[in-house]
Amino acid sequence: MNAKERHTQSIKEEAKRLGFLSCGISKAEFLEEEAPRLENWLNENRHGQMSYMENHFDKRLNPTLLVDDAKSVISLLLNYFPSETQNQDSYKISKYAYGQDYHYVIKEKLKELLHFIQTEIGEVSGRAFVDSAPVLDKAWAAKSGLGWIGKNSNLITQKVGSFYFIAELIIDLDLEYDTATTDHCGTCTACLDACPTEAIVAPYVVDGSKCISYFTIELKDNLPQEMKGNFDDWAFGCDVCQDVCPWNRFSKPHNESLFQPNESLLKFSKKDWEEITNETFNKVFKNSAVKRTKFEGFKRNIDFLKSNE
Fold it and tell me: Which of 17-31, 44-58, 158-172, 280-294 has the lowest mean pLDDT?
């Protein structure tokens, strides 16, 4: 086994030890196929008020602009599928936000992985990315063979599903590269048929500005009246296109203690959510991604859903 193979193997073993579901590696190079797709998506205003999507266009497509002399993009998946979900009579929170904010949980694991690489292999420079920098994480994960990008524009993995986070380490070390997998969506249109706001405007094309996740998290203005009755009781995020995906039959509960939800989150009824105070909000969502909406934003979402009834 040569050094490149040895390094690749030890990185993948360490990723597994840190609790990652899987690890795939790609050559750090310009994402040629993604460039026109991203450009069209932005030109068609599919990003709504998410103006940050327009920034750093070149960096999104070229990892060598993010890390000097980048050679490899290491993509990692971390399962967040919960063992228990909310009770039936409730406003819904997206499963990824049940526990502690994934940005911090994954950042720590990535730091450990980078430290391991530097200790085991030597002088390696790199940066960790968790969904907060201009990195097209789904494109890299697909390129690394971790799954394919489905008709709902999520990464999907055979026999695993799609309830996982994606993160990257971009490093200046040559490694063995994985190959992309094939698309297994076939003729299925479950996600297109089920989307409550018809945000999946065509197979593989999601209009971000029509997505319930966009409305309940990103949109800072009042929620549009014409969307009344279309939110399917989602108060933060939306899992519909994943819940109906046949591949998610294979989802298995995670074993990350930091992703365990506050008991109240699972037990709250609609009435409990309607009466939530700032203090309770801070307690239930301590260190949670739901904090992004702040109490006022969350209350706005609940009031909007309540007025549908």
Answer: 44-58
- Give the pLDDT confidence score for residue 235 in this predicted structure: 97
Binding residues for [4Fe-4S] cluster: 185, 188, 191, 195, 211, 238, 241, 245
Instruction: Judge if 56 and 152 occupy the same domain.
Output: yes
Residue 180 in domain: no
pLDDT at position 7, please?
Answer: 95
Quote the CA–CA distance of 82 and 148 in Å, as a whole number: 23
Q: How many whole angstroms separate alpha carbon 170 and alpha carbon 252?
A: 28
Which residues neighbour 176 within 8 Å (Cβ) at sequence distance 6 or greater?
4, 5, 8, 25
Residue 16 pLDDT grade (very low, low, confident, very high; cuts 50, 70, 90) = very high
179 falls within a domain = no
Domain that holds residue 289: 190-249+261-306
Of 177, 122, 176, 101, give the one whose Cα is nearest residue 145.
177
pLDDT digits 0-9 by tens, 247-302: 999 999 999 999 999 889 999 999 999 999 999 999 999 999 999 999 999 999 99
Q: Quote the CA–CA distance of 159 and 45 in Å, as a whole number.
A: 34
**What is the number of alpha carbons within 13 Å of residue 93 lying toward its C-beta?**
31
* 256 inside domain: no
Query: In terms of domains, do 19 and 50 share one?
Result: yes
Structure tokens at 143: 């390129």
Domain check: are 26 and 131 in the same one? yes
- Please state, in angstroms and rounded to a whole number, the distance separating the CA atoms of residues 4 and 12: 12
Question: How many domains are there within the chain?
Answer: 2
pTM: 0.93
Binding residues for tRNA are: 220, 278
- Residues acting as catalytic residues: 131
**Residue 155 shares a structural domain with residue 209:** no
